[in-house]
Amino acid sequence: MMSIRALRLAALCVALLHAGSAVAAEPIVLSLLTNRTGPSSAVGARVANGMRDYLEMLNQRDGGIGGTRVQVEECEVASDLERGLACYEAARKAGAVLVSPPDRALTRALVEPSARDRIPLLSLADGFPIGTRGDVMPWVFNPSAWVLGGLTITVSYLAEKAGGLGELKDLSIGLAYSTGADPAALATLRDLAARYGFATPLFALEETERDDEVWERIGRQPPNHLILLGQGVQAGISVERALKVGFPADRLIALRWPDEAVLRKAGSAGRGFKEISRHAFGDAFPAFDEIDLHVVDRGLSRTPKTGSGETHYNRGIYNAVLLAEAIRNAQRRGAPGALKGEDLRRGLETLSIDDVRWKELGLSGFARAVAFTCMDHGGHPPGFVQVWDGAKWLPAAGPIPQMSEAVDARLDQVVAEFLGANPGWPARAEPCDQPPT
User: Fold this and answer.
1) Model confidence over 63-101: pLDDT tens digits?
2) 147-277+382-407 CATH, one of 3.90.870.10, 3.40.50.720, 3.90.1140.10, 3.40.50.2300
3) I need a labelling partner for 214 at 20 to 30 A (CA). Which of 173, 272, 291, 416 fits?
4) Helix (H, G, I), strand (E, B), or coil: what is residue 29?
5) What is the pTM of this model?
């Protein structure tokens, strides 16, 4: 017969097993709103694949994050605002502790509901710089909104090639941009031109037949360098048309990346084309081998074998790392019970990934140190310059820091304009020198 002590021990073991099962039965629910279809599908599918593959690798290899599985719920929005709002509502009802919208319009539309529901947004939207200001939008995190910083990195790179910032004075640095581009980006480039004395001709692209006239004008009076600020299909079209009018590829530099198929199609004519990125391209990192082993080779990925390491896929990896590390951070801070939205916001606002941690993650050289704060929800990451050699990307320069003074000055102006246009905008509930409640 079992002793009373043994019975008590057995009962305790059963209770612990049930407790463990209860914890395991409550995964961390994340909602990924995707553009796998529609006008942004060329970018959206690859970003979504990168995010899913990294998080699924953690599930398969480690049993999740901190012993808790991550449940990624995808909802296709196809760049449609109404579908996006419906997806958010479904995510809220499903208990998501974070929602990741893919574009600027949807991010803006979700600012108020996410704050009401205390669900942080990890936005993938370029051209939404105010989403990096935690004092104004405390529930929005936007590491992608770095066009302002990216422009300063571009100018720093061109200055280095010319022999210093003082050598920019006699240069012409043009910008070909989609007409929907953030006005703050144009203002930032004008600020830099005024400060360093270079000319900055601006070429608005309407995505119509009239663009042919714009590219012909560029071909007739080419600037010394041309920055491309398009996205999705437009990014690739800009490259094709620039090469068609004879603009040299090695004087083109992009802030938003074209599909690599465009560059492969260009053949040797595309050699020397450059891009600015907050992370490296390619898959020569141990973490990618782990993804292949635990996800791709097991048939758990939607990524084709040739898709790993592609520019937009790596952007998804980058964002997934930030998210996973923020979850770890929230767990370390000892939030009781299941992770909630406010816990994850706290994890994001105190996120710091240094070079040592990137190496521990199997991503040494993939990106450089980045940190968020209560005020800074974008991280001000440095940039890499990547160059296309006709078949693949190679590192050309970096890391190059942002000109933080210029970026912050423009952000202050963006905030002032936003608050002026939105009187009564609610102030952050708690000051930045206090932890979120």
Assistant:
1) 999 999 999 999 999 999 999 999 999 999 999 999 999
2) 3.40.50.2300
3) 272
4) strand
5) 0.90
